Amino acid sequence: MITCVITYDIDPNRRELFAQYARNWGECSPRCGADLIGYFAPHEGSTTTAYGLYSLPSLAGYEAYRARLAADPLGRANSEFARREGFIRGESRLFVKLASAPHGGRA
């Protein structure tokens, strides 16, 4: 399993648009095959950094997921929404694998 970590640079004056964008992905990402961990907007500290995290079985699974998103009506509309409104100033993706499993129990 791999996890895609998307780091967004967002316009701090348009965070409500990012929140709508995140809710839209929250609807269509699982439908298109991702195990969505979530989208995270700024709360304390930086007002411009946001994250999206989801897991997939492999990089090949990621490519298939991206193809399904491109064919999904909400996925297409959400991508266009972000381009049209310009609230995302930049983004980068990092693929990571869980290294700490198995986790211990809580005391």
UniProtKB/TrEMBL annotation:
Signal peptide interval: none
Domain NIPSNAP: 5-100
InterPro entries assigned to the protein according to its UniProt record, in alphabetical order: Dimeric_a/b-barrel, NIPSNAP
Gene3D superfamilies from the UniProt entry: 3.30.70.100
Name of protein: NIPSNAP family protein
Lineage of the organism: Bacteria, Pseudomonadati, Pseudomonadota, Alphaproteobacteria, Rhodobacterales
